[in-house]
Design goal:
Rossmann fold; elongated; 10-stranded mixed sheet; alpha/beta; single chain; 2 domains
Length: 301
């Protein structure tokens, strides 16, 4: 992945301060990329109850007000010399509309504010962020309220364990994306992997005669060795390699807070069936770390 050329940002007009817009402006400035800002307005729940003429006038009013608000937000960016365009769309299905824009525009990255969604709501509905993590065809940058607008520390979270080759295509894409971002922002690049010993206990190792502790120790040593060899191949300095022990979601969130990681670059897997409802490490990290995520899809998915 080379320097960014086209960035697409989703504007949340309910927010007075948008970390995603600030981050997108930084990336556009550092890479001299064009920036398109898209705002989606959903009809209120009572919309079908209104008369047609009332709906038409109200829609025009909502869109006009949103366009004026959005233009006011990005005017200062234009004064800074950035190439910024903006658009407001009225839609009952923001997810489909966003995917359509991604397909037509083919941006290098889609940048969006993290939407904090409580557990109860997640039980009954799938958050838009999760839907985009599963369906968006380009790297998805979800920006939290913590961290610096101009990233100073970026970490590539790779999975070198189990049956996954350390230099797998997805791991390479994660490191490449993290390195591109670090170079453009003149930021530190870290490499991290979380090994969960309990995953060994939960796995099917009935054919082994060794104790669980011995088996977990052997696998930990093997994964650490694979991780360090991969770090060597990537040219990551010794003090920026982090091999963590524990549940990935918990350990990565704590690592990001303790080290001051502004952007954690991770992979995302397109899933079907029950897995779509359970969620993944990437999805649950959205609500446990103050910084940002850059989610990378495997090729050809």
């Amino acid at each position: 992945m080379g320097h960014y050329q086209r960035l697409l940002t989703l504007a949340d007009l309910r927010q007075r301060h948008s970390p995603a817009l600030q981050r997108a402006a930084v990336l556009a400035r550092e890479s001299d990329a064009g920036l398109h800002v898209l705002a989606c307005i959903e009809p209120p729940w009572s919309w079908p109850l209104l008369e047609h003429d009332v709906r038409s006038k109200a829609q025009d009013g909502f869109v006009l007000e949103a366009r004026q608000h959005l233009e006011a937000q990005i005017e200062s960016l234009r004064h800074q010399g950035l190439n910024v365009t903006a658009e407001v769309v009225w839609t009952a299905d923001p997810h489909a509309e966003i995917l359509r824009y991604v397909e037509e525009m083919q941006p290098d990255v889609l940048v969006k504010d993290v939407e904090r969604v409580g557990e109860l709501r997640r039980t009954f509905t799938t958050p838009l962020d999760w839907q985009l993590l599963r369906d968006c065809a380009v790297p998805l940058h979800l920006v939290g309220e913590g961290g610096h607008a101009h990233p100073r520390r970026i970490a590539a979270a790779v999975d070198t364990g189990g049956d996954k080759a350390p230099d797998s295509p997805l791991n390479r894409r994660i490191v490449e994306a993290a390195n591109t971002l670090a170079l453009q922002c003149d930021a530190e690049l870290h490499l991290v992997h979380a090994f969960d010993p309990m995953a060994v206990f939960l796995g099917d190792f009935s054919g082994f005669s060794a104790s669980w502790a011995d088996l977990a120790g052997d696998l930990q040593a093997s994964e650490r060795s694979d991780f360090l060899h991969f770090a060597d191949a990537c040219g990551v300095p010794q003090d920026r390699r982090h091999f963590l022990l524990g549940p990935p979601t918990l350990m990565l969130a704590g690592f990001a807070r303790d080290v001051g990681i502004d952007v954690l670059v991770m992979g995302r897997i397109q899933r079907r069936g029950l897995e779509r409802y359970v969620g993944s490490t990437t999805e649950h990290l959205l609500y446990q770390m103050p910084g940002s995520l850059l989610a990378i899809r495997p090729e050809n998915t």
